[in-house]
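Dear Dr. H.,

I hope your travels went smoothly. While you were away I took the liberty of generating a structure for the chain from your last submission, since the lab meeting agenda had it listed for discussion. I wanted you to have the full record in hand beforehand rather than looking at slides cold. The sequence, exactly as received, is reproduced here:
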Amino acid sequence: MVLTKDKNIRVNQLEHVALVRANVACIMLGRGDLTAAAMGKIFVDNLPRIRRALRRFEVPLAASLSASAGLRVLLAAGQWLKPPKEIK
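The corresponding predicted structure, in token form, is as follows:
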């Protein structure tokens, strides 16, 4: 699993291809301007949601994570989801 604050996977074709080829789950923070402690807290607070997403969807997977909106799966099994799936 990849934890990142880089959201460019949504718009950068090379990053998308790399994610799909690596066959991993990528959890992206919605904001990159947070302190390391704040980022860690968001990841830890959302571990149950992340686990649910990993059980429910196949990799390669990309999901956006934020303190206010929770976890939204954007890509599963290498395919973009329209609309993204919100994990409660």
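Two observations you may find useful: The first strand starts at residue 2 and ends at 4. The chain has one domain: 2-87.

With kind regards,
E. W.
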